[in-house]
Amino acid sequence: MTRALDNDTFLRALLREPVDYTPVWLMRQAGRYLPEYCETRRRAGSFLQLCKNPALACEVTLQPLARYRLDAAILFSDILTVPDAMGLGLYFSEGEGPRFERPLREEDAIRKLRVPDPCGGLRYVMDAVAEIRRALAGSVPLIGFAGSPFTLACYMVEGGPDGEFARIKKMIYDRPDLIHRILSVNAEAVTAYLNAQIDSGAQAAMLFDTWGGCLSEAAYREFSLAYMRRVVGGLIREKDGRRVPSIVFTKGGGAWLEAIAACGCDAVGLDWTVDIGAARRRIGDRVALQGNLDPAALLASPEAIVRETRAVLDAFGPSDTGHVFNLGHGVSRFTPPDHVAALVDAVHEHSRREK
Amino acid sequence: MTRALDNDTFLRALLREPVDYTPVWLMRQAGRYLPEYCETRRRAGSFLQLCKNPALACEVTLQPLARYRLDAAILFSDILTVPDAMGLGLYFSEGEGPRFERPLREEDAIRKLRVPDPCGGLRYVMDAVAEIRRALAGSVPLIGFAGSPFTLACYMVEGGPDGEFARIKKMIYDRPDLIHRILSVNAEAVTAYLNAQIDSGAQAAMLFDTWGGCLSEAAYREFSLAYMRRVVGGLIREKDGRRVPSIVFTKGGGAWLEAIAACGCDAVGLDWTVDIGAARRRIGDRVALQGNLDPAALLASPEAIVRETRAVLDAFGPSDTGHVFNLGHGVSRFTPPDHVAALVDAVHEHSRREK
């Protein structure tokens, strides 16, 4: 486990140590835009069966790395494995996204909510992490991840898609005590889950706060950021003599970057609405930045992709570290696979030249 | 037309002239949460027929004013009347939102796009404005409105709901010349449309940029803000000896407030994710602010509504003008009508006390 990495550019950039070029990986880099992913998923039977089968999860995790010169792998999984292990009954209805059979709405059920053992019902995730880490054989680092306590709570309370988050917000305004109870359990569960991933081989940890941006600033600080701070503070900081960096990403959090940067994380993920140069001036002296090309740019021509990729690198500005290139959100399923190659190559070539 | 208003608090606050209390109106204050609205809409036959019938549009515009002590009325209409008048064939499919029969995707159709005569195919809107203004009889001011050039373009190019804006973004990256052509026509159309509303009796003008927040900062400036600046610069500034204030609202634009405040408008609308006190420190010396309670707060108990309403007023801070209270987005259809009364009364009472 302790052999040195062939390519540790990603980890070095997160810790703001000098690098030769800007490393790149992409949120949802293993996904439906890749025909080989669709093939493996078909074999698995469903998305959830794919997540729960360590051998197949390992297979799809490695697929984008076989195609592109990516600087990191990310565990193939879903943020909702944690509430599923809490007994809420995760399922996916075609075209509608995730749903829970038993959403969390009654005070009694909320009081009974318990932290799941990450090596019990979530054993399959740890097995996948270990298998991916072995398969990577020291080529690039493996990122573990989890949903933020608040984002998990959104799914747990709403139970299914609701653009307005009516149920959880009503609970926030009327019964903040119940929300705080859910968030406390979630924070403890996510901390244990990420630490188990690190113990199993994950070399960096990322928190996805997909829905924190639906809150007012005051509510964001109280119901999302405070619990991410708790998670980050509880993470294993070093493994096998090497620091394990953490990344916090709040979609729609562009106005709150200073507060996010102060939560204890090593890096802040940026969605595409933020100017990364402005973000660097605001918080670049404290954390690394990850992002932030508009995923929709990958639908355009390779020429446009190269132009827009360079624009993000140029906006970040000259530097020998502190930037991990990524999209501002996950790869769209409609992305032509060769467009991703154009992006990855443009990041490497343009950043080598500018350094 | 020139008789003085009984209550001009709203107009004075927008122009940052002293007021006795903080005025309030609500985006989508005439809507499905009101049973009397649902009744009138049933009589009209459909949402679109309601928009196109000046007598019924006037009736629903006045309904919330009969219930609540609101400080302004807003024309009941839809932002998509303009592209409808351009010949795109607006229709509403139940539960799916607006669609166009002939979305704008071919270069040839884009080249043929023309500015509609606001007193031709949009005559019904001007008739509604005049009728509402007469019916208001000087009680409170009437707000006219339009969609921003970019937001209209989103609907025109996508043709129907698409959360990712894949088509318009692909066009932005691959064919910016075509997008600029659409936006130029839209800006001219929206300017003429708002000026015709002002000529017909609207006493303030608001631009709704519902989708500008889906863009990167650079794209927002180039494809949304630049064209709103063009519209604002072309508006009638004075009518019947009184200034006609303009309000620009970009949902998700919290990171760009300084740029928005510099577009020539009198007031900037804020969604609920922005802290209004921080916004005031950033741009309050240049423009008035409108907003910004989370619409979901209206689903909570009246006690919580009063508390959250006061929190917004307190965040804005002590002042004798420059704040128009509103939600950060439209009233949800699930809002209990008496909750709106709690909000309106809390704004008036709390702001009178604090001044």
Written overview of the protein:
Two copies of one chain form a homodimer. With 355 residues, the first copy, chain A, is α/β, with parallel strands linked by helices. Chain A has a single domain, classed as TIM Barrel, CATH 3.20.20.210. Chain A contains 15 helices and eleven strands. The first copy, chain A, has helices spanning 9-14, 35-44, 47-51, 54-67, 81-88, 107-112, 123-136, 149-158, 166-174, 176-200, 217-233, 257-261, 276-283, 302-316, 337-354; strands spanning 73-74, 90-93, 97-100, 142-147, 204-209, 238-239, 242-243, 246-250, 267-269, 288-293, 323-327. A seven-stranded parallel β-sheet of chain A has the order 1-4-5-8-9-10-11. In chain A, strands 2-3 form a two-stranded antiparallel sheet. In chain A, α2 packs antiparallel against α4 (54-67) and α13 runs parallel beside α14. Chain A is globular. The relative contact order of chain A is 0.14. The mean pLDDT of chain A is 96. The interface between A and B is large, with 37 and 37 residues.
Task: Describe the structure concisely for a colleague.
2 copies of one chain form a homodimer. Chain A is of the alpha/beta class and 355 residues long.
CATH level 3 topology of chain A: TIM Barrel
Rg of chain A is 19 Å
Helix content of chain A: 40-55%
CATH structural architecture of chain A: Alpha-Beta Barrel
Unreliable spans of chain A = none
